[in-house]
Amino acid sequence: MLRLRTKLILGLTFLFAVTLAISMQGIYRIYQLDRDARQILQQNLHSIVYSNNMLRALETSPVQLSLLQQNLELQQHNITEHGEDALTASAAALVKQLQADPGNEALVKSLRHNVLQIAELNQEAIARKSTVASKTASNAILALSVFTLLSLSVYIIFILSFPQIISRPVGMLSTGIRQIAEKNYRTRIDLRPGDEFGELAAGVNSMAEKLQVYESSNLEQLKAEKTRLETIINSMHDGVIGFDEKRNILFMNTVAKRLCGPVKAPGNTVLETIVRHPAQQQLTIAHSGQTYTFIKEIMQVENNSEVMVLRDISAIQELAAAKTKFIATASHELKTPIASMQLSLSLLGDIRTGPLLPAQHELVNSLGEDVDRILKISTAILDATDEQLYAV
């Protein structure tokens, strides 16, 4: 298959050859016209001029023999037509006789008639050659017209066909590269190898094939990563909702779907409530006869998108309530024996119950201090627990 450079050289050579042929045809036809015109001027018009000069010499009195002889000699060297040589020879004989007898009118009359015949012969030749020249010009015009029309036809065919050699592969390459740029890596450019376009198409096809393999491997990897992330997100106990930069929902995990219900359902008040609720504040949602409490957190990601996390604190609140109940029960259970112990120690210290030995009195005071210490500790524990519950 021809290379692109060879195609261009052949195309330009063809144009040069056609142009050269038109030019040579025109030059040849012009040369023919010029040759016919020169023949008329050189062969016949000069003879007519010589004849007119000889007639002028014969009209004078006396006859100008020198002028007559001079033009006769020129005519003798310009004999071109059939029969002109005999007339010229007859005129030369008459001139010779006239030179011997200048006053002979009969010789002058005969010579005049002879010269007129030479002039008429050349005039007829001029008319005949003019007809031939006109026919030659007509033929030249016709030939040049036909040749020009044929050349124009060839030019038009060449102009319509030759650019396809360049534009067709360029268009196919442009379309294929555009498709590949749009990530349609299955596109292939169908150009046979052999020239520069074929080699370029083969390179682009090889690149597209490698990109297709690369995309397939990356796509499988991305799918695997997506599946893994979806599994992790769906296994979370917190609700997760992803939004794009236009606040359109990208994904929701199982917990969020269970709470919000169908996303595209008209009048989804639960989802609207979640979206409008301020961040970092508790949010209570009633669902399926149960009440859930969440802390709404917003995490900003690139491209102005965000991820909303609904942290479930219902279990924490239940645990806090259980702790409160336990502590209240424990407090009640602790204060009752402490109060009983304080009462018993108070009775022991009363003299009405009997005097105590110094050692016994010391033991009662020590027990009283221990009971007070236990009461202060339990009170401090209750206060600390209340502060923690308030913080939660």
UniProtKB/TrEMBL annotation:
- The yes or no answer to whether the keyword Kinase is present is yes
Task: Give the catalysed reaction(s), semicolon-separated.
Answer: ATP + protein L-histidine = ADP + protein N-phospho-L-histidine
| EC numbers on record | 2.7.13.3
InterPro entries the record matches: BphY/WalK/GraS-like, HAMP_dom, HisK_dim/P_dom, HisK_dim/P_sf, PAS-like_dom_sf
| Bilayer-crossing regions | 140-162
Alphabetic keyword roster: Kinase, Membrane, Transferase, Transmembrane, Transmembrane helix
Q: Where is the HAMP domain?
A: 164-216
- Top-level taxon in the UniProt lineage: Bacteria
Q: Name one Pfam family in it.
A: HisKA
Can you name this protein? histidine kinase
**Source organism:** Chitinophaga qingshengii
